[in-house]
Amino acid sequence: MAHRGGRHFLQIPGPTNVPDRILRAMDRPTIDHRGPEFQKLGQEVLEGIKPIFGTTQPVIIYPASGTGAWEAAIVNTLTPGDKVLMFETGHFATLWRTLAQKFGIETEFVPGDWRHGVDAGVVEAKLREDRDHAIKAVMVVHNETSTGVTSRVPLVRQAIDRAGHPALLLVDTISSLGSIDYRHDEWGVDVTVAGSQKGLMLPPGLSFNAVSEKAMAASRDNRMPRSYWDWQDMLKPNQNGFFPYTPATNLLYGLREAVAMLMEEGMTNVFARHDRHAEATRRAVRAWGLEILCAEPAEYSSALTAVMVPNGHNADELRRVILDRFDMSLGAGLAKLAGKVFRIGHLGDFNDLSLAGTLAGVEMGLSVAGIPHRSGGLDAAMRYLEGNGGEVKKAAE
Amino acid sequence: MAHRGGRHFLQIPGPTNVPDRILRAMDRPTIDHRGPEFQKLGQEVLEGIKPIFGTTQPVIIYPASGTGAWEAAIVNTLTPGDKVLMFETGHFATLWRTLAQKFGIETEFVPGDWRHGVDAGVVEAKLREDRDHAIKAVMVVHNETSTGVTSRVPLVRQAIDRAGHPALLLVDTISSLGSIDYRHDEWGVDVTVAGSQKGLMLPPGLSFNAVSEKAMAASRDNRMPRSYWDWQDMLKPNQNGFFPYTPATNLLYGLREAVAMLMEEGMTNVFARHDRHAEATRRAVRAWGLEILCAEPAEYSSALTAVMVPNGHNADELRRVILDRFDMSLGAGLAKLAGKVFRIGHLGDFNDLSLAGTLAGVEMGLSVAGIPHRSGGLDAAMRYLEGNGGEVKKAAE
Amino acid sequence: MAHRGGRHFLQIPGPTNVPDRILRAMDRPTIDHRGPEFQKLGQEVLEGIKPIFGTTQPVIIYPASGTGAWEAAIVNTLTPGDKVLMFETGHFATLWRTLAQKFGIETEFVPGDWRHGVDAGVVEAKLREDRDHAIKAVMVVHNETSTGVTSRVPLVRQAIDRAGHPALLLVDTISSLGSIDYRHDEWGVDVTVAGSQKGLMLPPGLSFNAVSEKAMAASRDNRMPRSYWDWQDMLKPNQNGFFPYTPATNLLYGLREAVAMLMEEGMTNVFARHDRHAEATRRAVRAWGLEILCAEPAEYSSALTAVMVPNGHNADELRRVILDRFDMSLGAGLAKLAGKVFRIGHLGDFNDLSLAGTLAGVEMGLSVAGIPHRSGGLDAAMRYLEGNGGEVKKAAE
Amino acid sequence: MAHRGGRHFLQIPGPTNVPDRILRAMDRPTIDHRGPEFQKLGQEVLEGIKPIFGTTQPVIIYPASGTGAWEAAIVNTLTPGDKVLMFETGHFATLWRTLAQKFGIETEFVPGDWRHGVDAGVVEAKLREDRDHAIKAVMVVHNETSTGVTSRVPLVRQAIDRAGHPALLLVDTISSLGSIDYRHDEWGVDVTVAGSQKGLMLPPGLSFNAVSEKAMAASRDNRMPRSYWDWQDMLKPNQNGFFPYTPATNLLYGLREAVAMLMEEGMTNVFARHDRHAEATRRAVRAWGLEILCAEPAEYSSALTAVMVPNGHNADELRRVILDRFDMSLGAGLAKLAGKVFRIGHLGDFNDLSLAGTLAGVEMGLSVAGIPHRSGGLDAAMRYLEGNGGEVKKAAE
């Protein structure tokens, strides 16, 4: 592409802007994946990634996209014919369900309006009904990348516990890990699915399964055919920092740097930064007079905000104008939201002035595209940001 | 690791030395995988990779290690209970068989001594016996990374044809693609499995399936559960340069550069360069008085040479000495060859002087480690290289 | 420095934000500066840089900062005791004068208020007075980096011509080249001084002298002792793409890429982009109710805007707040402007959204630092940017 | 240049192979050279570079080639008409003398045969003759890059002291610093001149003056016109980590990394490594039956070896063959040595196997070019390297 002056604003909700430190860390020769230098790298990343999941249990690292880690969570714990409880919170929840069905899983899919998260009351009710424990897993998307709606995982956990049901809890954190507070161990999650290209600030190509004791035990007995995704095959060499097949070494260099950066900033600060930018974004949206897709404030996403365009207007046309005129990529509305919403990613390696540039691009784009709105959105965001050194109370907690 | 002066010699048979041009190509911001700039990239790599396989048919690109592409070849074309014909040519053939077994495939595994390639006569005989066509696929490793023995794929094809058998031909070219002459279409291969980290000179993290019409048809009818590896899901978005899930964008930047580099040099020259370096290496080994593991000259690998150490000596101790004293990584003997052979990788981004450095490291290492040998190995290699502008007749062709 | 999330905004008026393409172009092995590959590089950059100066005459490239190129312009054309006419347009004009004095040059330094450019009427008057042509050179800073005031070089040229005076015209374009329209040949400039780290988007370390026939002739007769800066020593090897001493090869890699990028965008577009961002910035400043240091609209700089803070307030304290809270570097007031102005760089690799982020940082910083101002500055800039596809009429032309 | 497979061998005696760690360290955004982050960098490099010179006194860092640092040493300490004592040890000593002459320095240039270093006896005799101390400086090249001959600086110091002469001692270490043992303070050197692109493993573009108290005092009184090179202007801002004009920030990033790497390896080990590789090279040259240019073993260079080709043969033709066939750059014979010698650089980031590759390229090149020689050179080098863990006794110490 011919140069046009200045840096592209990549404000889709992932892949996110990869910081120079991480690109540089990856830009070095690949090493022998069976040698002592690799071993040190392997041990560092396998150990270093754990606090980011809020776990002291094993985290499996795959050379694969997040979709692969979805598949891994299923093929390690479930068998064709098993029943699971899932929730139609948006496009990615729907895709995960489709994936499960391909492996012969029977999915009870609680319908949703794509504007709300998982209803913990429904979880409890469904599990109470399931007296013979046919349901083997409750599968939840923590942060719906297609809608900017989060589901409150602790409430889901409590619902399961209240129902006294043995189902595993599988949670997709692909677009929340490293951006929104998450606690694999404390919240009693059995499998956490994640990817590299969002809050971890890496290019795509790595994905993760954090695995509880209970899930690990289930995998030992599980007869679903599998090889690439098999946890057991991973665990043994991982104990020494190695992998059963050639790992994506250069992405692991990047992961080591990403972990270092997140630890330098501190996870609490990282989460507060995301909360603050999300709140500033919502204030801009409201000032524009546009509607936030997420209908429940306690479920607002700190990683992205999906914004509805007024009836009769096309969000994709707006996105095209913004890309052409202002060199910024925004997320499209997906599936049944196509053309109706655009999504602002405000996650990953991001700061106040980049957010201001992002909101300026949206505000000017709305004008250029002729979408009815009030000005003053960025103003509202700035007033919030300037008055706020970083403390944000988040409803969900 | 603390600096010790000079560049590490990574002479394992993969991952290979990644050229600066490729590292630099990858060292740039990730882009929107749904936008127009990505589309151009996607179209370029999906088209550009084809001549390297010698095909005009689709090549599927996975964000995964080569092991994933092994699995993909199986789950797309075979069903639990299917029978396949495989050959014990070495460690990787054995691993591929194990993988197939995990998916319920019945593997007829013709025993071998790890010093010879596939015997085409046996292929023909076995297929002729199989009158009711229970064998669904013949699965062959083109270049056994564990032994430095190649199998002559055209002879296998002819054997299948002579037997008039409809079995698919699946070939692993993980350590040969881009290094040793290979022709997916001309040789009538149905699925070619490959990876990024060998002849393609990339870091690990991408793998490939080149797919014939016949294999594609088989996949349409195949009921083996699959999702991540599913060819059909890939093909549709691929037609426009896109992928069904987030691709490993930065590795694709590298792939575009790798394709450009191979085209600049010309595949014929690339193969001749590898043949020449392999011949120089074998002359060194013979001058040292050591034995080449590969027993059949027509099956010598141009990607690596496995060398046997005399009885009573340990190849791993030699490798340790060479790593410590000369900062070079060599390949270990695997499985039943552990301690008995070491493997010299001479593939990928490589030239005469790097080969000389490599052979010097081996020759000095043999002395330091006290392994009986004659000197003069590097001398023999130099005499060959200096007298030879590049023409090499290869027995196998 | 510990990671704090997001990308630093480097909005000093140079060094500017180095684009990734340039950093990557520099990130490769140094080559033999006497070999054929270097020769090609040398020829490309020596030829490619010329259109950026608007010249077909030689451009000398030094491995040095811009200060070195200032010195080079003097030691090649002037001799101790020579008289020159200079103008106190700001801090850098003053420094250049001091440098000239160190080499024994007698400088007539026309006083100024640091808010105006060179008065062409004064040039003409002074030269008319100088009947015996004691004045050997008129030395002008095109864009005063310390004030954001440009001098209109064509008017200076016309003044010299009207006076019929043979003085050389030396022009410093360190902070204008590649950002503000400039024409070495058309405007009859004899020596143009430039540096790498502003409009050329490179790191610091290269500087330039574009040299007219007349200046070259003067240098041949000039007896000022010199070696490193000597044009004659450079010219001969330059004809073949080489240099008389080891050049800064990796910066030349970057220069090749910078030239390519400017040519891709087109110099007319580059200048229009800078004009437009400068106008947007001034609209923001006026909306804030602050005063632009440059007093004459025809002399507004398109590279930077210096803004006065109200009496009783400290611009450095504002800058400190902005750096701490919003991770943006702005330029300080220099010398007699210390504490009184801050300077916003809007040059180099820059676009609308980065400008919006920059202005947001200033606007929020003014609030946090408690500097009296009206809000709405960024709003005014956005209204201008969104209504304007790129056409800007510039008063100076 | 089109890809040809493998990594270029850059075996000129500088610029040397820049390690990836240094290229990567430089590949990051330029920062504000007046801000706190730069200050830390400035302090680190200004302090960190001192032990590499063996000094606790100031080291001045210029954004310039080594030639600039030659000029700086002169213009800070000498005045037109001053007399200096220099020695024709080779091409660079001759160039430095020419440079001095351009600044009006009267150079007594003791003739030499380009095969020997400075004769300390001559130093003493010349200084004893100079009863009225007209000689202001003794100027010596530590390692003659054109010949591979070192001069023993401690002996020169002793000669000056024995003569009781107050002359300054200026030493060029451009191709020795960081490769050959050197001690600015202990050896009583007044100005040490150095560059970035040799033992410091950086790209060209930085150069250095280490300055004694006595030289600093001389500079305070010295009236030679100067500005860019002026030590006094540098010293004040340097105290806080800053520079009087824009420094070459990205090269300073590289310098910080280079210092770290040299400290990790340890200077004693760095010198021993160079000594060892030089000895191995000489053994190869002798085994080939070729003559080493340096006539005095106590003066052998550990940075490079200049090799004479037999009469009637052309070293440049040999170099061309080696570049074309083996992708290796060697140093040319310069000035009166043109065509008669080639120079093997074995300095900087280098190890045993790279040396073996280098010597293989020379040995094969000799054959291809038809230059009479015996084989066995690389063999001799390998026997030395394999038997030698690193201890080398060097005659000069």
Automatic annotation (TrEMBL), chains A, B, C, D:
Gene3D superfamilies per record: Aspartate Aminotransferase, domain 1, Type I PLP-dependent aspartate aminotransferase-like (Major domain)
Binding site for substrate: 343
GO MF, one annotated term: L-serine-pyruvate transaminase activity
Cited SUPFAM superfamilies: PLP-dependent transferases (SSF53383)
Domain Aminotransferase class V: 30-318
Keywords for the protein's UniProt record, in alphabetical order: Aminotransferase, Pyridoxal phosphate, Transferase
Cofactor: pyridoxal 5'-phosphate
Transferase keyword on record: yes
Biological process, per Gene Ontology: glycine biosynthetic process, by transamination of glyoxylate
Superkingdom, taxonomy of origin: Bacteria
Family: Belongs to the class-V pyridoxal-phosphate-dependent aminotransferase family.
Protein name: Serine--glyoxylate aminotransferase
Species the sequence originates in: Skermanella aerolata
